[in-house]
Amino acid sequence: MDTLSLNNDDDYMSDNGDSEQEMDENNPVVDESLMSTAEVKGKHKRRHSKCWNFFTIEGDRMPDGKFKCVCNYCNHFYIIDLHRSGTTTLLRHSRTCSKTPNNTCPKIDQLVFREMIAMAIVEHDLPYSFVEYRRVREALHYANPTIEFWCRN
């Protein structure tokens, strides 16, 4: 009796000219396109932060996992672990770097600034020598390098 078998796998497994690419234990066939993308993904990671417009990574990763990142404009370098601390330090430098193009520190009116500090000293009962504290001057200088300091007298 002639019956039509729908479960016949002979048609599915028929030879369509790919017998040379069959995989055996000694010579497995590997899709080269998949391998090359895996290698590229492992070696080169795209960098999305805006800081990479101002910085370049110099050399390879150090043994402790850190990178040497150099400013393109002032050649100041940072050795940071990008996986741990990210790019915040580099972004902060690019905002305050005086040699970065189109980066201007806002001009402040020295008399208005001095009056504001004087009001803070009076309002919070701070000593007049507050303006001479080393850390206060460092913080103010960090905020704006053009600040002119004065003494308590």
Automatic annotation (TrEMBL):
Comp. bias intervals (Acidic residues): 8-25
InterPro entries reported in the protein's UniProt record: Cuticle_assoc_protein
Stretch list, region Disordered: 1-27
Protein name: BED-type domain-containing protein
Organism: Brassica campestris
